[in-house]
Amino acid sequence: MKPIIRGKAYVLGDHIDTDQIIPARHLVYSLGDPEERMRYGQYALSGVPEAQAGLPDGHHPFVKEGHTSPYTVIVAGKNFGCGSSREHAPAALQIAGVEAVVAESYARIFYRNTIDGGFLVPLESTEPLCRTVRTGDPVEIDTTAGMLRVGDKTFRLKPLGAVEAILRAGDVFAYARQSGLLR
Amino acid sequence: MGLTITEKILARHAGRDRVEPGEILWVDVDVLMTHDVCGPGTIGVFKRQFGERARVWDKDRVVITPDHYIFTADPHARRNLDVLRAFALEQGIPHFYDAGPNRYKGVCHVALAEEGFTRPGEVLFGTDSHTCTAGAFGGFATGIGNTDAALILGIGKLWVKVPETMRFVFEGPLPPYLMAKDLILQVIGDIGVDGASYRAMEFAGEGVYALPIEERMTLCNMVIEAGGKNGVIAPDKATLDYISRRTEKPFEVVTGDADSRYHSERAYQLSDLEPVVARPHSPDNRALARECRDVRLDRAYIGSCTGGKVEDFRAAARILNGRTVTVGTYVVPATTAVARALDQERIDGKTLRQILEAAGAQIAEGASCAACLGGPADTFGRLNGAEVCISTTNRNFPGRMGSRQSAVYLASPLTVAASAVAGRITDPREFLA
Ligand code: SF4
Fold first, then answer.
1. Which is it for the CA torsion B75, B87, B59, A176, positive or negative?
2. Would you tell me which of A55, B153, B306, B391 could form a disulfide with A11, CB atoms 3.0–4.6 Å apart?
3. Between B69, B144, B376, which is nearest A109 by CB?
């Protein structure tokens, strides 16, 4: 986990489900194939209704061309990642270049998947930042201090708690090795 | 202070006497299920982490059930089936239900139960969010991603955070116009789509035990739509009868302690409840069916792990017997066993298939997830435009059934059948004299 994550914010609302993060018809591509996996980046967040894509104005495609997005931090509301267990969802965001998500809360399978697969850092805000931050704002996250800075404002993030050990280890395999369950 | 069923099962699988909600434990896994959408990714991670020649920790505990993209010409989807085949062959996995004429079962959550893998007191993980369905048999069951599944394939263990338990009690006898779908949509409407995040949802009361086993599965199936980690129902005689007909494997029934601690408790009188729908685009957007009379429909869909079981078609046939649908009505049996039951179960001397066909419904040739999650463009029943659809499935997120322009209402098979006849959303009591 990087101590400092910097990038442009992409802002979404509440209950962004996994069908919006990566629509089911794309789940057929191989994540193991270096060429094919790029399609997940290309279609990341392509299921979000246009009016809600990049708040507050909407109509900002997350990926304009190719398979990477100019936005590396997602700021969202409640229950981010609800719906299916597809690991293609955090993978798609990572492939598109996302390093961190800052949401008010997460759906638990998505949350686990981001941490255990080491895809990105899921942080929780203490207030609805998706109504403060605007799509395109440059933000800076200090993962050690638990802070998000945007412009001259600083917001506190919730402590990661017990899962921090897994994020620090890198992924669940590294964590299982540290726990002595895996050689 | 006693333990809830969920706490007790997790404690036993971690070799502990007791556990507290919030603790992180490594638990032993009894069954791991995967399917064609997440299996290939899981296998990829497994090989990367444990080596090309690694063996799974226990091949008898791995169940592979292709079900999502089966009846499609999509080449990527077909390749995923090949990946599963190669892996099952290489590892000698006995419980591989390959697509094809011989062993194919269909939708994983229903197939797991039919084949006796959903045993009380056990820990079952699956690479599918609706794995929580299996909690209807009194075990701990939840959905995970590919990475976690790959770790289980290698070591047979996974970390879990012990959830707090929310208890839901349904009191009174079950009225003939209500189904498990109404009960769970009622609960989700009350607590919201994140109302049970990180928690167990335990169901109890006379109303729950009045439900046939498949209906209890529907109840637990949709706890994920409230963000729940697992759903659970303590076993009764009906549970044990169902399981013992399907497996000889020994298991131990676990029940909660009388003095166990709950996060919260809610009680419902079944006689107070009415048939409900979840309006677009969220499972918690509840309304009474009778208040949605103005909603004109283009399509009805009866299928999926939630709404494509034998009980679901029996309910739909109660309404459709002797009536005709006025909108395109798509029927997809969840499993091959359900498809066979359509030819065996009878009402008034007619098979369920005869009743559904005479009513004008189109029945899919094969059992699968079909349009429940949209799928490739050639998927049976897929929504491809701005259709308004009423469906027995479990999710109505934007675009879930194929088209972002479509609008999906979720309801019980009784309500869906009544609505298919009327061409607008209809309370089934209008047809249940
Ligand atoms: S029927 Fe639908 S909800 Fe059930 S496993 Fe298949 S896609 Fe998922």
1. negative
2. A55
3. B144
Residue B69: list chain A partners with CB under 8 A: 28
Which CATH code of 3.80.10.10, 3.40.109.10, 3.20.19.10, 3.30.9.10 fits the domain covering A4-178? 3.20.19.10
Q: Which residue of B has its CA nearest to A36?
A: B76
Is the pLDDT confidence value at A28 over 90? Answer: no
Across the interface, do A20 and B80 touch by the CB < 8 Å criterion? no
**B 383-412 residues with CB below 8 A of A?**
395, 397-400, 402, 404
- B328 and B382 co-located in one domain: yes
Flag whether pLDDT at B433 surpasses 80. Answer: no
Residues B301 and B243 in one domain: no
Regarding whether B293 and B248 lie in a shared domain, the answer is no
Structural domain for B121, as ranges? 5-268
Question: What local confidence, expressed as pLDDT, does residue A183 receive?
Answer: 80
Question: How far is it, in rounded angstroms, from Cα B108 to Cα B216?
Answer: 16
Task: Give the CATH number for residue B89.
Answer: 3.30.499.10
Residues B263 and B283 in one domain: no
Asked whether the CA dihedral A122, A123, A129, A133 is positive or negative, the reply is: negative
Q: How confident is the model at residue A162 (pLDDT cuts 50, 70, 90)?
A: confident
Domain boundary among B246, B268, B290: B268
Contact B340, B78 (CB under 8 A): no
Phi-psi region of B174 (alpha: psi -120 to 50; beta: other; left: phi over 0): beta
Q: Are B256 and B396 within one domain?
A: no
Which among B64, B101, B35, B33 has a CA at the least distance from the CA of B366?
Answer: B101
Q: Are residues B296 and B153 in the same domain?
A: no
Asked if A137 reaches chain B (Cβ–Cβ under 8 Å), the answer is no
Beta strands in B370-424, from DSSP E residues, in sequence order: 388-391, 407-410
Closest-CA distance of chain B to residue A152, Å = 33
What is the structure's pLDDT at A155? 98
Q: Which residues pair with B329 in a beta bridge?
A: B300
Q: Do B151 and A116 touch (CB under 8 A)?
A: yes
pTM of the model: 0.96
